[in-house]
Amino acid sequence: MSMKTIGVLTSGGDAPGMNAAVRAVVRSAISTGLKVKGIMRGYNGLIDGEITDLDVRSVSDIIHRGGTILYTARSPEFKTEAGMQKALENCKKFGIDGVVVIGGDGSYRGARDLSLRGVPCIGLPGTIDNDISSTEYTIGFDTAMNTAMEMVDRLRDTAQSHERCSVVEVMGRHAGYLALQTGIAVGATSILVPEVEYNLQADVIDRIRTAQKTGKKHFIIVVAEGVGTIHEEVFHIAQAIEEATGIESRATVLGHVQRGGRPTVRDRVMASEMGDAAVQLLVQGIGNRVISYRNSQIVNDDIYEALSMQKSFDFDTYQMALRISI
Ligand code: ADP
Ligand code: F6P
Questions:
Q1: pLDDT, tens digit, 9 for 90 and up, residues 15-29
Q2: Which of 18, 76, 174, 194 has the most C-beta neighbours closer than 10 Å?
Q3: What is the per-residue pLDDT across 114-132, written as a single tens digit (0 to 9) for each?
Q4: 12: left (phi > 0), else alpha (psi -120 to 50), else beta?
Q5: Contact between residue 278 and residue 253 where contact means Cβ atoms under 8 Å apart
């Protein structure tokens, strides 16, 4: 089947840079002679037929904006056979020959299912968590790290003037990549991540006490969302630190501020390159693949293989962070 029209959708949690990716897909496709349709609200738009034509100007003025102009959603219906059939009917009805799916690994699974039923899909990694196994980088990660760093810098100012301890939760329900990078960048005394089991006494309180002995008076503890009870652990940790050390402590959950904002250079450029790479595959009729970033190169992988890859947490970097934050 020759590829004439492609669809593009964003799915799962949004990430800064998704708009830049949508723009790249639209512009690259049109430059290559394809027509493009925007599928709204993730896979829900495919099921409900919420699909609109996109031209070169439809994606003007979005490269610098967070969020996604296509909206995003989690679509439980798409996982059902009935939902999938509706999606396939709409692909036929709207003349969609292939789809670029921008999202996380859940979205990749949907793209695999659609590809297997005859609509070639290409996945683009979009999540602030950087937790997709096949790629070293996901669109949105750099912006989220920089936002988290800036927010914690602000907390540091007030922690410093009050000689307090600031315990901060950053996003990452299943992954500590964002917490590790942010923790290093802000000089956190402890960084707690879901990949490493922690002991409050040894990994937090003792480290604070040791630093206190050499004159340190304010402290930052970075905690990934996926550690302990989500959105509560930081409050327990802050209370425990105060009781054990006498240092006044405050807890902050950064939350969804990390998901918004103007994408950084890295996210805009990565999204542009990946969006273009996806179209160059689709135009050849190639589907069931995802775009990945490995060894400083944009590559692509079979979706099934991408989903079965393992991504290891960087324990060496984690150890380094502990060595230099004493
Ligand atoms: P993310 O893509 O960020 O990981 P989700 O896990 O919420 O986010 O997945 C986004 C959407 O992808 C889901 O709402 C669903 O429509 C689709 N999806 C997720 N998992 C599967 C699956 N196992 N099979 C088919 N579709 C899936
Ligand atoms: O996957 C991105 C992410 O921001 C995670 O870090 C976080 O756990 C989750 O999404 C929050 O999801 P929601 O937007 O549904 O609150």
A1: 999 999 999 999 999
A2: 18
A3: 999 999 999 999 999 999 9
A4: left
A5: no
The answer to whether 118 touches 1, Cβ cutoff 8 Å, is no
User: Cα(first)–Cα(last) distance of the chain, in Å?
Assistant: 61
Q: Is 129 a catalytic residue?
A: yes
Say if ligand 1 is within 6 A of residue 127 CB: yes
Q: Is residue 1 very low, low, confident or very high in pLDDT (cuts 50, 70, 90)?
A: low
Beginning with the edge strand found earlier in the chain, give each strand of the sheet holding 249-253 in spatial order. 190-192, 219-224, 165-170, 249-253
Query: What's phi and psi for 94, nearest 5 deg?
Result: -90, 0
CB of 75 within 6 A of ligand 2: the answer is no
Q: What class does CATH assign to 143-259?
A: alpha beta
The predicted model scores a pTM of 0.97
pLDDT digits (tens, 9 = 90+) for 134-155: 999 999 999 999 999 999 999 9
Residue 292 has what DSSP assignment? E
From the CB of residue 211, how many other CB atoms can be counted at a distance below 10 Å? Answer: 16
Residue nearest to atom 19 of ligand 1 (CA): 106
Closest C-alpha residue for ligand 1 atom 25: 110
Residue nearest to atom 12 of ligand 1 (CA): 107
C-alpha 107 to ligand 1 mean position (Å): 4
Ordered by start, the domain boundaries in the chain are 5-140+263-308, 143-259
Q: How far is CA 48 from the centre of its chain?
A: 26
Q: How far apart are CA 306 and CA 316, in angstroms?
A: 24
In this structure, the residue with its CA closest to atom 16 of ligand 2 is 256
Q: Are 5-140+263-308 and 143-259 in the same CATH fold?
A: yes
Radius of gyration of the chain (CA): 22
Alpha carbons within 13 A on the beta-carbon side of 310: 3
Please indicate whether residue 127, judged by its CB atom, sits closer than 6 Å to ligand 2: yes
| Arch. (CATH architecture) of 5-140+263-308 | 3-Layer(aba) Sandwich (3.40)
Instruction: Indicate whether residue 154 lines ligand 2 (CB < 6 A).
Output: no
